[in-house]
Design a protein that fits this description.
single chain; 237 residues; alpha/beta; 2-enoyl-CoA Hydratase, Chain A, domain 1; 2 domains; four-stranded mixed beta sheet; 10 helices; 49% helix; 18% strand; globular; ClpP/crotonase-like_dom_sf; Enoyl-CoA_hyd/isom_CS; catalytic activity; Enoyl-CoA hydratase
């Protein structure tokens, strides 16, 4: 179940299956994809309800992928998770992963797709799929080495071990350890919304460098024209 609460410039999206540690079934992934896709607030906080952020894929669903006609086949399930992660990454909103408690497997992968990842001191992260004969296939093999480097990505994924918040920070899996992730999302939402959108676009751009430089200059010019009065006021202050 996916719950949403809008509070001004912030939408809080909560994965709400605490009794299953917020593990995601195909229907939950579809709902999450739709929720993020339709969001028009400048900032989204993605979090879990209860003692876990997200335990990843619901194992009952994973077990039945080849046997239950109501479920996608294994490749389709992987592509569904990839689609949700892509929706998060490409959203015009800045998406903050508020990791409080356990993040495992697909939960880590969805967090990797977010623009900002913060953890509380009690958070733990792991990719335990290797122990079950699986691996992170919701875009994890692409995003993880991009974010933490190939060496950390290989060791983290091949060992299946769980890291605490401090080690996740040292690896670069998260950028900060905070008591309340909502405060980070609120602080970002307090910035200029057009700047947030353009900064995300520019930092997410995978085009050749010369094209990115041109787009950067154009984006700066767009913001300057829109905010020249505010810039002048700030200079006077």
């Amino acid at each position: 179940m996916i719950r949403t609460t809008d509070d001004g410039d912030l939408r809080v999206v909560t994965i709400d299956r605490p009794e299953q540690r917020n593990a995601l079934r195909p229907t939950d992934l579809e709902a999450l994809d739709e929720t993020i896709d339709e969001t028009d607030t400048p900032v989204v906080l993605l979090r879990g309800h209860g003692p876990a952020f997200c335990a990843g894929a619901d194992l009952d669903s994973v077990t039945d992928l080849d046997d239950d006609s109501r479920l996608p086949d294994p490749e389709g399930f992987a592509r569904l998770g990839q689609r949700v992660a892509d929706t998060i990454e490409s959203s015009e909103s800045v998406v903050v992963a508020g990791i409080d408690g356990a993040a495992r497997g697909g939960g880590v992968e969805l967090a990797l797709a977010c623009d900002v990842r913060v953890a509380t001191p009690r958070s733990t992260l792991g990719e335990p799929g290797v122990r079950l004969g699986l691996f992170g296939a919701w875009g994890g093999t692409v995003r993880l080495p991009r974010i933490v480097g190939e060496g950390h990505a290989l060791e983290f994924s091949l060992s299946g071990r769980v890291v605490d918040a401090d080690e996740a920070l040292r690896m670069g899996l998260v950028s900060r350890i905070v008591d309340d992730p909502r405060r980070v999302a609120d602080s970002i939402a307090g910035n200029d919304h057009r700047s947030l959108r353009i900064i995300k676009q520019r930092l997410r751009d995978r085009s050749p460098d010369n094209e990115r430089f041109e787009a950067e200059a154009a984006g700066f010019a767009e913001l300057h024209r829109s905010n020249v009065d505010a810039i002048a006021s700030s200079r006077r202050d």
